[in-house]
């Protein structure tokens, strides 16, 4: 905490922003009719600027999904250019990609506050759609207001406005003993005070069947078998409290908040293989966060900021001296100190974090605006092992801090039909790593000071060709600074890498949107071309069977196209279609050890490159059945290799097969829409579905959800 206190002295008076934005009334009406209506947005500018923005941004409204059991990751998966991959059922690790860039290259925000290192209990798959009003999805270029070192884009989760009285209560139950309880409540008092609270509880046994698992006898594979997972339960809970004033002469918003979250996540097997089975390995997370937010817009000047501080503890448990098989039987290893994954261990890793941001807008006139933003992110990491005295990782605290300074100029010309913006960002990173490292074939504790900085820049342009036709383009020289897990390690399975350099990427987008309406028909067609030229790609490299580290070694070029079409007829029928094709190839000439690279020009392995979604919704008011809505969704992922495509014969190479799954949602709203019930079926035809490293995911599942909204 000393590190946090030291940095708190730098930011007295800085309190932050909870970003909200207005939507053009006509576009908002269109949005509510579609399954996933998408609106181009940018920051907090006027409604017209939102529609004409040069940023490639989608606004996903969650209203049509709040009666279903979709979490935020699943809702995002319906957006063009986005693909969400998971390693299993509820609570499993997941990775979201936007136009070919993924993982830590994408930044996440909650009402404008960065969610980096929030802990496992506050990931997107822990958030129900009930707690969120909409999500901004930036593809490629990210505005400086978010002050992020994003390489491939950003997602900003936006909650309802503060001047509403709300009560949203829901409970769902389904296959694999999956349960979710969420409560969102808000009171807006007449004296401009408000109080908001949200509570979320999740649980799933994740005991689904898996097929074609190797059957081992006496150390030899003798065939395959169908097994049921028996140690993969996930439980999480969170409480988010917020109170303050809004809409006064002092502030548009002045508030303080507290977030408490925890989870327990059992681990059935390593993420990349099912050949090793666990029955006692699990992790826990405990997050305690405090935030302060401020926002005020005057006629010519706007000021906003946030402050976030707190403590996040991740604990890893591996205490059973056993070797398990898929049938639940086990043997005892010869070494009494062995656990299931490594040496027996109860390791606690604690991060003290401090983040703050201050940004200002100055309107020179009606056409020209200047924006300045500064964000700082500091972390102090320490840890200890309760039972393994040899694990001294982070016994001396390590620290890392980074800052982003941004400047932007935006203008409008030709009666606002052309909007142009330029921006620049400067990134700095410093820190101190104290860890055991190999020096001249000896293991010694070494202190490494981190200090580097880098700059980036970009531009956006949009042209309104007509009332219905908009063309936009954007470019950025983007920079991503290494994450704490990449450069500091975890003290268990990820070793420190103080030599890591930032990733850079030249991102280019060119897109067009065309709207057509006649009588009771409305359609919108979108096309977007993208190019990503990425250098110093950071990737994980195994080194000691169960351990590894992150290193720079790859140059990757990604290009592709995304297509989207939305149609609505008579306000009762709607159809969303989207498809994405991306080609990500390795352009490195040498490998990580400096030898000639044998896979130059190959497509990056273990990564889908063609995927699509379709969703058809029917409001049964068309047949005089009030309150009943049905939706049919299809998710398609083309086959891909999860090893290098040029290695060996393609006919015998491991690949993830083509997959197409179907989902059905039936919703009924009772009188006045206050009471709602929904029935959902996932993977109706019970197709075998796979993802990372060909690990099987849950098959057919059924859910029922009850919701009260007032």
TrEMBL record:
Stored Gene3D superfamilies: TonB-dependent receptor, beta-barrel domain (2.40.170.20), TonB-dependent receptor, plug domain (2.170.130.10)
Positions of the TonB-dependent receptor plug domain: 69-154
PROSITE patterns assigned: TONB_DEPENDENT_REC_3
UniProt subcellular location: Cell outer membrane
Leader sequence segment: 1-25
Family stated for the protein in its record: Belongs to the TonB-dependent receptor family.
UniProt-listed PANTHER family: HEMOGLOBIN AND HEMOGLOBIN-HAPTOGLOBIN-BINDING PROTEIN 1-RELATED (PTHR30069:SF29), TONB-DEPENDENT OUTER MEMBRANE RECEPTOR (PTHR30069)
Protein name per UniProt: TonB-dependent receptor plug domain-containing protein
